[in-house]
Amino acid sequence: MLLNLIIVMLSVISLVYGSLSGNLSAVSVAAVKGAEAAVSLGVGICGMICLWSGIMELMKCSGLSGKLSRLLRPLLGRLFPTAAKDADTMDALSSNVSANLLGLGNAATPAGIRAAVGLKRLSGMDTASDELCLLVVMNTASIQLLPTTVASLRATFGAVSPLDILPAVWLTSLLSVSAGIASAKLFEHFSHP
Question: Each residue of 99-108: pLDDT tens digit?
Answer without folding.
Answer: 888 777 677 7
